[in-house]
Amino acid sequence: LTGDDIREGLAAVISVKVSEPQFEGQTKTKLGNTEVKSFVQKVCNEQLTHWFEANPTDAKVVVNKAVSSAQARIAARKARELV
């Protein structure tokens, strides 16, 4: 499984307040503060772990979706290689 397999179809909204935000690019659509990224990853990982433990049935659905995405990605790659 890759991160893309797990994130496929996932939509999330995260609100972060930063005293001195640094944005990437001219459109300023992506936050560039690396310390914020590390913090958000840590918090999301902890909270998702708790949620998976508290909701094993739903967690299984998420895992099955990720496995299906991985299988589809692998099948698509094999199909491209045959051409």
TrEMBL record:
This is DNA topoisomerase (ATP-hydrolyzing). Residues 1-81 form the DNA topoisomerase type IIA subunit B domain. Keywords: ATP-binding, DNA-binding, Isomerase, Nucleotide-binding, Topoisomerase. It comes from Mycobacterium tuberculosis. One of its GO terms (molecular function) is DNA topoisomerase type II (double strand cut, ATP-hydrolyzing) activity. Belongs to the type II topoisomerase GyrB family. It catalyses: ATP-dependent breakage, passage and rejoining of double-stranded DNA. The lineage of its organism: Bacteria, Bacillati, Actinomycetota, Actinomycetes, Mycobacteriales. The keyword Cytoplasm does not apply. Coiled coil: none annotated. Gene3D superfamilies: 3.30.230.10. Its EC number is 5.6.2.2. InterPro entries: Ribosomal_Su5_D2-typ_SF, Ribsml_uS5_D2-typ_fold_subgr, Topo_IIA_B, Topo_IIA_bsu_dom2. It is an enzyme of class 5 (isomerase). It comes from the Bacteria. Pfam families: DNA_gyraseB. GO terms for biological process: DNA topological change.
